[in-house]
Structure prediction request, 207 residues.
Amino acid sequence: MTDTVVAGLLAGYGLAIPVGAVAVLMVNMTAATSLRTGAAAALGAATADAGYAVAAVLGGSALAVAVRPVLGPLRWTAFAILAVMAARILVRALRRGPDTAEDTMPHRRMTPLRAYATYFSLTALNPWPAIYFVSLIFGRQTQQPMNGAQSLVYLCAITFASASWQLLLAGGGRLLGGALTSRRGRTVTAAVSSCLIFALGLHMAVG
Prediction:
């Protein structure tokens, strides 16, 4: 059973650790709001990862066949959402400038519930977790088939790994927000983050 836990943790961290557009956006949002809101966003992303893992265990290779025909549209839909968010951050940062009294981040009205739903949706729109988990779990099943208990432990380990990493990112975003308290610092952060979000989202769409 220990081998199953380790395999699940490695699978979860392997998917979550590479920082993509959604992760950058979450760090930006947490820096502008609160750790509670950032944690809700992190759990939303982790829930989507867990959902794909569960679907992969239950559906196996059939899931890859189902997702493949809409792989392109899903990627471009996710990119469109990210591009709009990036543009909104950049436009507000440039329009208000570093010396205005208004906050440069467009996240002030983001509630924990809305953050959870938003980041769950953004993560779920990315089809790569489905392909990743189907390939990984299919390979594991061919080498060492898992029974019901092992599958449950494996899924719990994946969920823990994803959630712990996403929460670490959210906490880092909150610390970043505490360090960059000046208006100029917030403007620079908004501009850099928007560019990163757009670039990473485009890479996801065309990669």
